[in-house]
Amino acid sequence: MKNSFPEDRYWMKEALKCALLGEGLTNPNPAVGAVLVKNGELIGKGYHSRAGAAHAEIEAIEDAKKRGISVCGSTLYVTLEPCNSWGKTPPCTQYIIREKIGRVVAGSPDPNPKNNPRAVEVLPSMGISFSWELLDEALFLNRGFYHRVLTGKPWVIAKIAMAIDGSLSAGVGDERWISGLPARTLAHKLRMVADGILIGAQTARVDNPQLTIRLVDKRYKVQPWRVILSLSGKLPRDLTLFRDAFKERTLVCVRMPIEMVLKELGSREVSILLVEGGAAVLHEMLKEGCVHEISFFLSAVIIGKQPLNVNPYSPANLSFPFALVKPSWEKLGEDIYCHGLLEKGSKFLESIRIEYASKG
Amino acid sequence: MKNSFPEDRYWMKEALKCALLGEGLTNPNPAVGAVLVKNGELIGKGYHSRAGAAHAEIEAIEDAKKRGISVCGSTLYVTLEPCNSWGKTPPCTQYIIREKIGRVVAGSPDPNPKNNPRAVEVLPSMGISFSWELLDEALFLNRGFYHRVLTGKPWVIAKIAMAIDGSLSAGVGDERWISGLPARTLAHKLRMVADGILIGAQTARVDNPQLTIRLVDKRYKVQPWRVILSLSGKLPRDLTLFRDAFKERTLVCVRMPIEMVLKELGSREVSILLVEGGAAVLHEMLKEGCVHEISFFLSAVIIGKQPLNVNPYSPANLSFPFALVKPSWEKLGEDIYCHGLLEKGSKFLESIRIEYASKG
């Protein structure tokens, strides 16, 4: 690959660390981090902290200037290809050109159709070297952004909390008795990256959950949409979701096909949708093939509660047993956590890499 | 504790290693190992290899003699209190006295009522020092023997093999597609320690399992009883269980209460019963409170098969969610393995320790 240097990977990982500071906080924008490097030294860094705030590239340039260092001729490492479109801020490509950045290295492509032409084309035409140093983590970080921008629908994470007798707990964050604190904390971290949390009407009725973010530092996080799928539309008016401080962020979808629900949420700029159950909703989502990623919590507990599985899983509705792609297992206190992508999710991210990061 | 020496624990663990060589092979006898120590050196060792063969103590004494070493005045470390009853062989206490063993240390008590009086009483009365060096592992090794001898019923291990969507696989050893090889191998090791394997009629019909021991070295292992619980008694005559080389080891229990099934199996000298499912049978056993131990296998797979759960788990039938006692988690290839005792099992073993190993 032309224009590539051995140190690129190191600096891109530094930029990723910056990007992660904005994870879950930037929607509908992607989370992006950037570092500026000159003569082998970091001279500035920044990240996009929330929608409306400066982009990571600008933050890094301003950081260097505050330190009194000229950015002219430096190399910009940015986890996502710089934008070339007018949003709440001018295109980053303009800053890069104006500030005479010497070289730009990007960790993942930005396929947003608003960028026309893209930075990968614009910057070289202005004499600025551009190359990729693709990081799986950078791609993964913005899976929701990618999916919404390209399909109009959110990336879907199914959260499954189970006891060893197969009993499901829909609201792992809310039903305190099933999981230990480390697992519950992780469950709230999952909500931190979500722009919507979806449950079934039965879960709403039985658990009366809050679906808010607790146990973690929320910072600027916007309360995710709380979406209830209902067949009847008959839900008690005194549910917490209808009465608490975030009641404006509760949506009820009555007898709406999953596809339509996802499009509706996409139009509301939900990039990552977290499906928290119960069993019937999880089944429906799996059956419709719209789940990309699974976060699975297991507790060594016997509950003896039948999963609220109205529509039994049926082999006729699903293709042959499918495994998570390279699942990770982790011990979380007394519990076990498994995380992995389904093939659909894995293939989607691979397609982004192939289709949008081959130029340059 | 009187007569106890710092090296006792070390030698008892050596004796345990011997005992483990007979695990699963000695039923209806317990698995026992022994080492003889003189002047700080091991002079003989042995284990009970199968019912009818010499007891561990005798093996150790014979081993020392073969080496040309006098056992007179040596210390015998034996994982289970020596027997004081006539079985297929004379009482070990008689050998110990005749061979002028100086001191006996036992790793767990033998509460078998056939020993009357017990070695803990007989040996000191004959001038032989006796003390305990209790090992949890030695107690655990013979949990089945203890339970059958004291209650007339087997110790029950429930094996649960699950996918992350809660689907159960009854015959983890037989349904090759759900678990990886390390998990399947462990499943067959479980069958190695069992004297009976129990399934429901539905599992028999749908999976048509062999319930034999494969993938591991079987040595002298007797094929465990294969027990089918059936409500109707109507089972296809061409099931493998009715036609293979072990068809004489297949039992069908028709409309029999669990308690009666367990007593029947106890009378057939089943010390450890492995319950392999399906869901209805597991539910029944849990509900009746007759499960002592759980071996749980999890695969990061979505099967989409509804558990064959005819009688839904019901919270009304079970006490409040109960956790495994100090569960262990282990990664087995791509799968997860969880093992632990239920309170019932944990308390039973504790009672043996308290009631039978307080003397001496």
UniProtKB/TrEMBL annotation, chains A, B:
Coiled coil: none
Single GO term (MF): 5-amino-6-(5-phosphoribosylamino)uracil reductase activity
EC number in record: 3.5.4.26, 1.1.1.193
GO BP, one annotated term: riboflavin biosynthetic process
Binding, NADP(+): A161, W177, D207
Active site: residue positions: E57 (proton donor)
Co-factor binding comment: Binds 1 zinc ion.
InterPro entries associated with the record: APOBEC/CMP_deaminase_Zn-bd, CMP_dCMP_dom, Cytidine_deaminase-like, DHFR-like_dom_sf, Eubact_RibD, RibDG_C, Riboflavin_Biosynth_HTPR
Cofactor(s) essential for the protein: Zn(2+)
UniProt KW keywords: Hydrolase, Metal-binding, Multifunctional enzyme, NADP, Oxidoreductase, Riboflavin biosynthesis, Zinc
Residue positions binding substrate: R191, T203, L211, R214, E276
Boundaries of every CMP/dCMP-type deaminase domain copy: 6-123
Positions bound to Zn(2+): H55, C83, C92
Record flagged with keyword Endoplasmic reticulum: no
Reaction equation(s) it catalyzes: 5-amino-6-(5-phospho-D-ribitylamino)uracil + NADP(+) = 5-amino-6-(5-phospho-D-ribosylamino)uracil + NADPH + H(+); 2,5-diamino-6-hydroxy-4-(5-phosphoribosylamino)-pyrimidine + H2O + H(+) = 5-amino-6-(5-phospho-D-ribosylamino)uracil + NH4(+)
Pathway the protein takes part in: Cofactor biosynthesis; riboflavin biosynthesis; 5-amino-6-(D-ribitylamino)uracil from GTP: step 2/4; Cofactor biosynthesis; riboflavin biosynthesis; 5-amino-6-(D-ribitylamino)uracil from GTP: step 3/4
Function noted in UniProt: Converts 2,5-diamino-6-(ribosylamino)-4(3h)-pyrimidinone 5'-phosphate into 5-amino-6-(ribosylamino)-2,4(1h,3h)-pyrimidinedione 5'-phosphate.
PANTHER family in alphabetical order: 2,5-DIAMINO-6-RIBOSYLAMINO-4(3H)-PYRIMIDINONE 5'-PHOSPHATE REDUCTASE, DIHYDROFOLATE REDUCTASE FAMILY PROTEIN (AFU_ORTHOLOGUE AFUA_8G06820)
Protein family: In the C-terminal section; belongs to the HTP reductase family. In the N-terminal section; belongs to the cytidine and deoxycytidylate deaminase family.
Protein name (database record): Riboflavin biosynthesis protein RibD
